[in-house]
Design a protein that fits this description.
13 strands, 17% strand, alpha+beta, elongated
Length: 438
C-alpha cells in the first residue's frame, strides 16, 4: 500500500486487504493505545510500572526486564518503539488494562474505531498467535493516525538510538532512516510466519508518503521494496495538496477502564438508651495527637507512638465508635478508609491527617521501603512538614511488605501526586507515583 499521508489518497495497492501476520507492526497499535491512555489521564509518562513474570519471560527482541523490577512508563515506550522489545510491549499492556488479554481487546476495539476493519489483535507484541491478523491497508491507516493524532510522540520512531532505562538501544529501522532521503519512521516487524514487514513514512518538502510492505524475504529486500514504493508515491503525489488530517476515533467506541467505587456499609447497632454524643474523634483529639507527634519527631519517635496509642485508646473508650469497612486489598480509596478507622491496639495503630478522598483523590506516592515501621513513619512525618503545600490533603500510610515497611502518601489527586513527587525527587528523595488500583 502507498498512501499520500496529507490527503489519505491511495496511490498504489496490491493485495492490500489480504489478512496476514503483522508481527511487530502490532506495537504501533500498542503505542497508539498507550498514547491515548496518557491523553485521557489514565496514566503518565512518569508512572513506575512493575514488571510481571509474564512480561519478563517474553521472547526476544527484549530489553531484558526482570520480574518485580519497576521502570518508568516512558522507558517502556522507548523500548517498544525503538528496540521493538516484546517484554516492554507486554508490560505496557498490563499497565493500561491489567492484563495483556484485556489490552488486546482494547487494541481491537481501537482498530475498529479507526476503520481497520480486517484487524484483530490477540497480544501486545505481535508474536505469532492464532487470529492475530492485519492487512497492509489497515496498518497504513494506523501509521497515518499515529503521525497526525500524536505528533508529539512520533519523533520516537525516527530516533536511531535512545536510552530505554536499562540500556541504550538501537532502532530496528535505522538502515532505512539512514539511507532514504526524508525517511522519519515508523515501524518494522519480523517473525517466521510473517516474514519481514515494514510501515515507513518519508517527508520531502510539502509531501509526505506512507508505504507498507508485508512478507519481505529479508530486511534488505524489504527496505529496497519500500524505497521503490516511496519513490513511486513521491512521483504520483501532487506537489501541493490541502492537508486533511484523519479524525480521531470517538472515545465512546473504546472501552475505558473505569475506576472502582468502594462503598462502606455502616454498622447499625441497637441501643436501649441514647447517651449524650461525645466529641467527634476526627476533630480536636486527632489534631492534638498529630501535633504531639510532629513536635516529638526529632526527640524520640518510639515514645510518641506509645503516647499516640494511649490517647487513641482513651478516645475510643470515650466515644465507643466503631467503623466496619468493606475490605478490598490494593485499592487507594480503601487504603484511605482503612487509615481512618479508630485505633484498637497499639500494634495496629495508624497515623492519619485527613480522611477525605473526594474529587478523584485516588492517587498515591511511595517513598520506598524501610527496615522498621518507626523509620517509615518518621520519614512520612518529616516529608509532610517539608511538602505541606502539596501533601496537606494526603493520608500517611505504612504498609508491611515482604522486604520492609513501605512509606506511602495516599488520597492524592493525580496532579498533586505528580507535583509532590517531582519536588521530592529534585531534593534527592526516592519517590514513585502510583495510579488508582496500584
Amino acid at each position: 500500500m502507498v498512501l499520500d499521508a496529507r490527503t489519505g489518497e491511495v496511490l498504489h495497492s496490491r493485495n492490500a486487504d489480504t489478512r496476514l501476520h503483522p508481527a511487530s507492526l502490532t506495537k504501533m497499535m500498542t503505542l497508539y493505545v498507550v498514547f491515548d491512555a496518557i491523553r485521557r489521564g489514565e496514566i503518565t509518562l512518569e508512572t513506575k510500572i512493575k514488571i510481571s513474570r509474564k512480561a519478563a519471560a517474553e521472547q526476544p527482541s527484549k530489553l531484558g526486564l526482570k520480574a518485580g523490577q519497576r521502570i518508568a512508563l516512558r522507558y517502556l515506550i522507548r523500548g517498544a518503539s525503538v528496540k521493538s522489545a516484546n517484554d516492554a510491549a507486554t508490560a505496557l499492556g498490563e499497565a493500561i488494562s491489567g492484563s495483556e488479554a484485556a489490552f488486546a481487546r482494547r487494541m481491537t476495539a481501537m482498530a475498529k474505531a479507526l476503520g481497520m476493519t480486517n484487524t484483530t489483535f490477540k497480544n501486545a507484541h505481535g508474536l505469532t498467535e492464532s487470529g492475530h491478523l492485519s492487512t497492509a491497508r489497515d496498518m497504513t491507516t494506523l501509521g497515518r493516525h499515529m503521525i497526525y493524532d500524536y505528533p508529539q510522540y512520533y519523533n520516537l520512531f525516527s530516533r536511531q538510538t535512545t536510552h530505554a532505562g536499562v540500556k541504550q538501544v538501537s532502532n530496528t529501522n535505522r538502515r532505512l532512516l539512514q539511507n532514504y532521503k526524508g525517511a522519519d519512521g515508523i515501524k518494522t516487524g519480523y517473525t517466521r510466519a510473517a516474514g519481514f514487514n515494514l510501515v515507513a513514512s518519508a517527508e520531502r518538502g510539502n509531501e509526505r508518503i506512507i508505504a507498507t510492505v508485508f512478507g519481505g524475504t529479508s530486511s534488505a529486500a524489504r527496505n529496497a521494496r519500500v524505497a521503490e514504493l516511496l519513490d513511486m508515491g513521491f512521483k504520483r503525489a501532487p506537489s501541493r495538496a490541502k492537508l486533511s488530517k484523519p479524525k480521531r476515533p470517538v472515545l465512546g467506541d473504546i472501552p475505558a477502564v473505569e475506576p472502582k467505587v468502594i462503598k462502606v456499609q455502616p454498622t447499625i447497632t441497637a441501643r436501649k438508651e441514647s447517651p449524650r454524643p461525645a466529641q467527634r474523634p476526627d476533630r480536636a483529639p486527632t489534631e492534638e495527637l498529630l501535633l504531639a507527634i510532629v513536635e516529638s519527631v526529632d526527640n524520640n519517635v518510639s515514645n510518641s507512638r506509645d503516647e499516640v496509642a494511649t490517647r487513641a485508646a482513651q478516645n475510643q473508650a470515650l466515644t465507643g465508635a466503631t467503623v466496619t469497612p468493606v475490605r478490598r486489598p490494593n485499592n487507594i480509596v480503601q487504603a484511605a478508609i482503612d487509615t481512618a478507622e479508630p485505633i484498637r491496639k497499639p500494634a495496629q495503630r495508624r497515623i492519619i491527617t485527613r480522611a477525605s478522598t473526594s474529587g478523584g483523590r485516588h492517587w498515591s506516592i511511595s517513598l520506598g521501603k524501610y527496615t522498621t515501621r518507626n523509620t517509615a513513619e518518621r520519614l512520612l512525618l518529616k516529608t509532610a512538614l517539608q511538602e505541606i503545600g502539596t501533601l496537606d490533603e494526603a493520608l500517611r500510610k505504612v504498609v508491611n511488605r515482604p522486604r520492609g515497611w513501605e512509606a506511602n502518601f495516599v488520597g492524592l489527586s493525580q496532579s498533586s501526586a505528580t507535583l509532590a513527587c517531582q519536588r521530592l525527587s529534585a531534593r534527592g528523595h526516592e519517590c514513585e507515583v502510583r495510579g488508582p488500583g496500584a
